[in-house]
Amino acid sequence: MPRDSLLEYFRGDSRPSGEIAIVWRSGYRTVRWPYEKLFRAATRFAWELSARGIRKGDRVLLWAENSGWWVAAFLGCMFSGVVCVPMDLAADKGFAERVAGLASIRLAVLGKGLALPGSAPQTLQIEHFFESKKNAQQEMFPSPSITGTDPVQIVFTSGTTAEPRGVVLTHSNILANIRPIEQEFERYRRYERFIHPLKILDLLPLSHVFGQLLGIFIPQVLGATVVFLETLNPSEVVRAVKNQRVSVIVTVPRLLESLQDQIKRDLTARGRLEKFQRDFRAAQREHFLRRWWRFRGIRRRFGWKFLAIVCGGATLPATVEEFWKRLGYAVIQGYGLTETTALVSLNHPFRLGSGSIGKAMPGLEMKLSVDGEILVRGPNIAQSYWQRGDVLSVLDPDGWFHTGDIGERDEAGNLYFKGRRKNVIVTPEGLNIFPQDLEVELRKEPSVRDCVVIALERDGNAQPCAVLILKDAANTSEAAATVQRANERLAPFQRMQHWFVWPDADFPRTPTQKPALGRIREAAEAALGGRRSGSSQAAPSGSIGELLKGISRGRLPSNESASLQLGSIERVELLSTLEDRYQVDLSETEFASANTIEALEKLIAQPPRGAVTVHYPRWPQSWPARLLRAAVFAVLVRPALLILGWPRVSGRENLRNVKAPTLVISNHVTYFDPVLILHALPARLRHRLAVAMDGERLESMRNPSPDLEFFSGLLNRTQYFLALALFNVFPLPRQAGFRKSFAFAGDLIDRGWSVLIFPEGELTRDGRIAPFRAGVGLLAAGLGAPVVPARLDGLFALKQAGKRRAAPGQIKITLGAPISIDAGRPAEEITRDLQQHVAGLAENGGK
Hints:
The protein is of the alpha/beta class. Helices cover 37% and strands 19% of the residues.
């Protein structure tokens, strides 16, 4: 059926009931929205816009991280005919404020921790809106009349200093890219049932059109599930691909390189890198099936359903493309710009050309100018720019869009990207750097007389290089400090890693007195010799200092060698942020001893070869293990409790209406504590409870030291098996791996299991409750489950007296009322409150 607008793709009844549309992480939980829930949420958002008086043609700023909430807000705008103005999550606040003013937005939809400075319009916090159940509209929203020429969004593509300019994209523009893919997919739909549902891991921001195409529009056409991840950490990506049974990764070249490095680091840690390299060389001319079998160990890590990679946003180095292809994965490259609604060309997944970025999309005309510039014309090309409220044409008088990129075509029509004519620098992450933004910051420095920023080619991509003319030509050592100070005022992705002091009094210039960038670039390349300028010029402390400024609320060390003044929660946040920013896995043990910026730089420059191995088996949650535990509890545990002294339980009525999984926290007195908590809990919680245990101790039981005698080692392994089978324990490491443990706790909650932890982290030494470890606040906020406080009394006196039996009721277990956690509060406050709840439990049922 012909479609005039995108609305006809998005109906609540367009997919079978129960099919999952979107999966994303919220804290330590995984959220799964079926298609019908997504459309209900979008409809609810449309009603909210209507209630605020926002109508067709009005503009709404959407600034948040990838999630189902983002998609629902975007679709809600589309249902209302409201024009969305998506903003990159990494955008500078000043830039976002300028865009908001230029677009005359009526509403700013903001993610957690984001705010528009100055006089912002009305705002809506996206997580709070969709998590709230107030005023939920159920009836279909009566969409206004919408045609193909109506705008869907305005995508602003400028940097942080230059004048923002928005690309106006209409329904027809987006449909022109969707329809050819939909028609081609119909030819293969009968084969899709073997891997249905197709799952797409979209690692591109939804503020980018390519990210939207693969994260919103194409999944709807294919009936696929899209998975969003809040981190680009390579090990987390690999884990998500396997656990979510992902078929396709959508990403940028930088991450593919990081994943390649991760594979090699893991192989090195296991002593298998040399064998892999031999296999890699031998597989060069082998058949696909033979390669598939040869690298089955790697495929097992990613999961057997993982088939292909869609890569865009920047040039993919040939060596990286060959690496993944030789492993047996399809690598599909595409080329396009915001003005072309993401796609100009796309490789066919079953007819790949090595190094090619595919053929022109159906319905799109493409030609090369005399000097090789790629020119395109067709219905997917935007017609206008939005700048200061004016509408500027995107096209030349003949209807062609000049991409500013250089390309070549072979006889078969495959397009090969050869470079950029524009002065825009595109990072390996696919982000645009505008040299004028960097030059503005450099010129603020008193030592700079003149400057230009050029692009240095590195592995097919570009990096910004500052070329400086200093007022004091003899003081070249000032260049490093100058660039570092400028970098501190720029967004992290804009920072200059290279610079060069121009040796003459002035730049070579064109007849119009503009710097001759070509000659300047040649001289800089020759002087730098194609190498990095060196760590002293890369200004890494500026990058880390910027991260520290945000995490430590402005408390920065006086210099790189000064000690970091960070609390435990702040160190957790810094560790995760560094791993995401630099896409490396950091040893938490080594990180704990890195107390200066200088030490952090060294740690990032030389990441560990292998991560600490901690195992999280799922078999203890299987039904045979559950039956075994129930039987043991009834036959052995309860009689033992009767013999040792039946404990008195108070507050069980507080849990009468608790149905959902909970986080149970308790003070820690003896190793027998989990048994007492199990006894106190109602049966519906007791039989679905997992217990956190010292991760290092649990791992030493699983893998005993080789120095132990055979029977001692066998005893340790037996204890490990019994601990998992009878008490459903899982590791909570003290030194390293706690984030994976928190993620596993979130997975348990998702599967309907309650979790028991002892926040003190060790047994009490004097009978009093020791300070709770800060991580419990982080965990409670991330799980989003009610917290049940529990308190054990009477055990310490028995322990001190060396008694094994107690009088009935001498041991007291108090259960408090469930506590709802506000995830927006600081983790330190949550930790303090939870400790006060446990310490304050009275003997009258915890009330």
